[in-house]
Each structure stands twice: as C-alpha cells, then as structure tokens.
TrEMBL record, chains A, B:
Keywords assigned by UniProt, alphabetized: DNA-binding
Limits of the HTH tetR-type domain: 15-75
Species in which this protein is naturally found: Nocardioides turkmenicus
Protein name: TetR/AcrR family transcriptional regulator
Keyword Cell inner membrane included in the entry's annotation: no
Molecular-function GO term, any one: transcription cis-regulatory region binding
DNA-binding region: 38-57
DNA sequence: CACGTTATTCATCACATGATGAAATGTGGC
DNA sequence: GCCACATTTCATCATGTGATGAATAACGTG
C-alpha cells in the first residue's frame, strides 16, 4: 500500500509553507508570549519539520521579529487622530485603539508585542516605541503642555483597557460594544490630554 | 590549607536556608515571571544545591505558590476602603493601592501574581480573585449599581497604572509622588464607581 | 557518647529546547 | 532529459530543565 506520508524532500504542488509557518508563529507568540512558545511547537502545528522553520527564518528571535510585522503604519494613523485639533481627540484615540485591536489581522502582532513588553527580555522597547511612534507625535501635533505626563496617563488607561479586554478577557469588558467603551473612556482620555493637571 | 568550601552534608551553625531560598524565589518570580524563572537559578542565587529547593518545597509550582503568600489580608483592608461611604472612595482606593505596591514587602508577591496573570497558565485566577476579594466586597459595601461594569472599569485603570509604574517602570509615572497620583487618578476612579454610566 | 533526625550535596534520569549539516525530493530552465 | 536550485526531512549536538535517590555531615536528644 502506497502510504500518503510524505517521506522526504520537496512536496508536490506549491504550498506556501513559509506563510503557513509565519501564521502559526504569529498566533502562538501572541497567545503565549515569546518564552512559552517553542520552535518545535510551531513546526508541528504547521505540519512541518522544525528545521524548516530555521531554514526560512533563521533563529527563533528572527522568527519572532518577523511575526511582529505590524499591519498598522504609525505615520498613517497619527494624522487621523491629530486632525481635528484638541476637541474630540480622546474619542478618536479610543476609537482607533479599539478598531485596531478588534481586527484580528492587526491584533496578533500587537498582542505579541504587549506580551513581550512584560517579559524580561524586550523590556523598555515596546512602551518606548509605542510612546514615541503614536502618542508622542499626537501630543506634538496638538501642542500639549507637559506631554510626557499626559501621554503616560493616557497610556496607563489604554494599557489597562487592552490588558483586561483583549489579553485577560474579563467580562463584561471583553464583550462590551465599541460605542459603550468610547462613551465611557473618551472623557477620561480627553481629560488626561487636555484637562488641568494637579 | 583548609578551604572554606562546604563539601557535603549539613553546614555548621543554623542558617535559615529555607527562608533564603524563599526570598530569592519571591524576587525572581516577581521580576521574571513563572516560566522564565528556573529552580536551578534560584538555588544558585541562594548559594545552595537545587535538590535542596525540592527538598524544602517540593515541585516548582509548590515553590511558586509558597512565594505568593500575601502580606495583605483582603478582609482587613476592605473595610478601610469602604468605610466612609461613597464620598472619597476613589481616593481611598488609589491610596491603598499605592501604599501596598510601594512597600517592597507586599510588592513582590503582587508582581508575581500580576505577571502570572498574563502568562498562559494561571489565566483567570488572578483577576477573578482580585475582583472577588477586593473590588467585589467594596462595591457591595457601597451598594453600587451595575457593580460588574464599575468594578471592571476601575480595574482597567488600576491595572494600567500598576503595569506602567511598577512593572514596565515608565517615567514620569514610575517616580511620580503619591500625592500627585492620588490627585490625578482619584477623580477618574471615583467617576467609574459612582458617576453615571453610558 | 550513641543514635535518630534534619540539612545538604552529588550523581544521575528523562526530557525538551534551539540549532546545524547532510541527504532526499521536487520544480524550472536549457 | 539534464542539471542547478529550492524545499523538505532525518539524524544529531549541546544545553538547560525539573526531579529523584543515595550519600555525607552536623544537630539534638537520650
């Protein structure tokens, strides 16, 4: 009986194995973090030998950064948030955050980034990048006073929201409709950005 | 020359090696999380063979829960926060949170808990416990409406604050004086607890 | 002082991980 | 059809992990 098991070498057809591996990697890194994700696990889930993973992506860390390729270009979204001036910037920020995190395509890399931010390795990389790439430009475009303080306050609320809604999936936050969240958080964020500071 | 290296068996004197191991374990679990912390690493840092760790604490997971032994008794602090009624409960909550997290004694176990909450294993355990042990009783004592929603909102802000100030150590949040933080966050928390909900 | 108990290390297991190099198999151009 | 090349697996290394059991040394009680 000629078994179907592919024994060795190249398989027939032209399956995009590289993309399959990358997809699995994104998933795992996002859901379990860097340390808890193993190259072998990714390989198995992708129906592939672990050596192939190394062949395509090099080291595990290389694969990680490859899986982080963001779907969101900061230079593209910052103007959208900033346009319109100080009024309503809180709402636009929240709305943008939710739309990005509610889209699976862009969520996975963000989750991986978020997770890695709290693991011992990458440390300051993520918050720093986030602050400089998004919140920094926004605050600059709006000409806020004490931008560092305001940006950090906003970040503290947004990080908490993301952590509970998307990472820990706490109810009723996880299932709350976007409009409710916007209505709830927009005033707070707006206050952090443009209100008086003690 | 009689070297000082202890070769085998029990060492002279009565050093509390068990406590030393536990201290190191608390530190490591808090700073690196469960997965990234190794029994051998703890043993080495405590100047001890790894077998001794197992001798005292059993499995690695046992050691972990042993290191979580909280310094804070919820039943003790909840009345303090709730006493005084709705007015000023936001400020009392923030003040309590900061005092607990600014004390190294109580911070380490909390950090370990927090970290484990975002690793794949413990999952819902921590937020659930936190909500039920602290925020739940508080909201009940205050007779709030829609307690789940309000409690989650508060948690989202507090988790973000803790994540940035104590875990990621983002400035200027990390070095901000307590009074400033109280003044900044108390109104928001108060609003989440007692203000109108959309 | 003898003896059981406790504290401590050594040697070792079984296993999982990341990584590499050689071999096998298909695809495409000439 | 042949040959360079890309794709895929196998076999293997070195390392690190959690864990166990036997051996040794100090302590405490009789």
């Amino acid at each position: 009986m000629s078994t179907t098991a592919p024994r060795r070498g190249r398989r027939p057809g032209s399956p995009d194995t590289r993309a399959a591996i990358l997809a699995v990697a994104r998933q795992r890194f996002a859901q379990q973090g860097y340390a808890a994700t193993s190259v072998r696990g990714i390989a198995t889930a992708a129906g592939v030998d672990s050596a192939l993973v190394h062949h395509y992506f090099g080291t595990k860390e290389d694969l990680f950064v490859a899986s982080l390729e963001l779907r969101v270009d900061p230079r593209e979204i910052v103007p959208v948030v900033a346009a319109g001036g100080r009024d309503g910037v809180g709402e636009r920020l929240i709305r943008l955050l939710l739309s990005v995190w509610d889209d699976e395509e862009s969520r996975l890399p963000l989750m991986a980034l978020m997770r890695s931010a709290f693991e011992p390795e990458g440390k300051a990389l993520v918050p720093d990048a986030f602050g400089r790439l998004i919140l920094g430009p926004v605050s600059e475009a709006l000409e806020l006073d004490q931008p560092e303080r305001r940006v950090t306050l906003v970040a503290s609320q947004l990080v908490g929201l993301v952590a509970l809604r998307y990472i820990a999936r706490i109810e009723p936050l996880a299932s709350a409709p976007v409009e409710t969240l916007v209505a709830t958080y927009a005033p707070v964020v707006q206050g952090y950005l443009t209100g008086p500071l003690p």
